Here is the input.
Amino acid sequence: KAKLYGFEAEVEAALASWSALNVSAAYVRGRDTFADRNLPQIPPFNGKVEFRGIADRIGTFTLSVPWATGQNLPGIGESATPAYALLDAGFASTRWSFGVTDLSVRAEVRNLLNKEYRNHLSTLRGIVRLEPGRSFVLSATLAL
Here is the structure.
């Protein structure tokens, strides 16, 4: 037997004709009521603050701060994890047309400040306990 409760909330507001702010948060609490213990694999209170904007005729950009509080109520076999906040930045180009083909490009830098942190739900990394440092992502979409 278990008891789970929590919430998810998201708010988005236009700041100007070219920008918006999105704030989201989620919380779950899980308890094994038979053994009177915390359930495993329960994330800490977490969310994201994201600023999105339009760069006229070029594309869109985002700055986001994903965050999580510390998980101080770990389940059996788990250890507590500290809080963290990261900074991510991204850009997505407008579509460029080449005859019947369209091309768009996206670039993102995750964990821009190269912060050392641990996601409480990352369990498949073996002895590696920390999340990746600064990561660069580049992708393109070709529409025919």
Observations:
- The mean pLDDT is 92.
- Residues 106 and 139 are 5 Å apart (CA to CA).
- The beta strands are 2-16, 19-32, 37-38, 46-55, 59-68, 84-85, 88-93, 96-98, 101-110, 135-143.
